[in-house]
From TrEMBL:
Keywords: Glycosyltransferase, Transferase. This is Glycosyl transferase family 1. It comes from Litorihabitans aurantiacus. GO terms for molecular function: glycosyltransferase activity. It comes from the Bacteria. Gene3D superfamilies: Glycogen Phosphorylase B. Transmembrane segments: none annotated.
Amino acid sequence: MRGLGDAGRRPGRLRIAVIAPSRHPLRQPHAGGLEAAVWDRVDSLRRRGHRVHLVAAAGSDFMADSPDALHLPAAHWSGAVSSDTDYPEGYVAVAEAALDRALTHLRRHRADFDVVENHSLHALPLVRAPHLGIPMVTTLHTPPLPAMVEAIREAGPDLGPVLAVSTHTARAWHEHGVHARVLPNAVDTARWALGPGGEDLVWFGRLVPEKGAHVAIRAARLLGRRLVLAGRVGDAGYVREEITPHLGDDVVHVGPLRQRDLAMLVGSSACALVTPLWEEPFGLVLAEALCTGTPVAAFDRGGVREVVAGSPGARLVSPGDVEGLAAAVAALADPTRTARARIRAHALQRFSIERQLDEIVDLHRAAAATPVTAQTPAVVPAASAAAPAVVLGDGDRVPA
């Protein structure tokens, strides 16, 4: 293990192992909101001077000095378009075995880490938590996943702190006996800067049915407004049937964009449409848009109401109400520069990752100060026994 011993540590510098979602590499353009949130967390911690080693799919940023044991296999399809619900043949078993090896590596080098920050959607890190000898802080990014629920119950108080990205998400897990403190996702507000606004409407996110881009198209056409779609294709069949036939001069798809370009697009738009057709755990696109001063018209599903609470630049309508969404856009679009600045100022108070980082670091320090012992079970749980076939990566789409 290179450079992780006490030599060279600065006072107050934490040594953190971050377990990322494993489906996609953690790099730009981001595969989804979960990847974006974890990428920003790692980047911010590193800029603060903390030593962060990442357990993530090969090809991720921040892994140049990480041992091979922490590199997980990314999912690769033979075609040009990946799927957010299926896996390449044989991937699940390989990914589980790699995650198991990474956790074994952390256990063996436990003296080199102060805390593990767990964002994985696989149950295995939860199963192994009592055996690592390193305190773990887990964040719940999705609706309850049965394998994770069972693993948290089995680990009990030895698991460590559990966080949820919204009150809505915390309540959903609480119904299954899992208690979590709410710590919302945050935004790098320096990158998501105040934008000038513009004439077009914007929708951004993964192109999958539950994100509802097809509904945004219908609302934009009711208004006679041009709509720009930005994001990765997560369901090729959905895009082929519901999106591609509607593309033209008034509806364009610019594909996935790097954060800088995406922030410029959103900040140069009149209004962002957010159209979840499922119980959205958080909705990072809402916070990102508001940080640029761009107002949002959104369906009131899941954690959406929490994210936009009190914002002067948000209107919520009933899920699926296309006419109501169009009316909300008409009421919000084209705010003045002063109005946009007010929208951003409110968002900065709530979502700035720089503001939140102190709380995160304090949480990690408290966890690191809690004595832990690496329990040694008769047989260390194997990946295949812990949580079969739950190596998701987006934090948004959870297959049945």
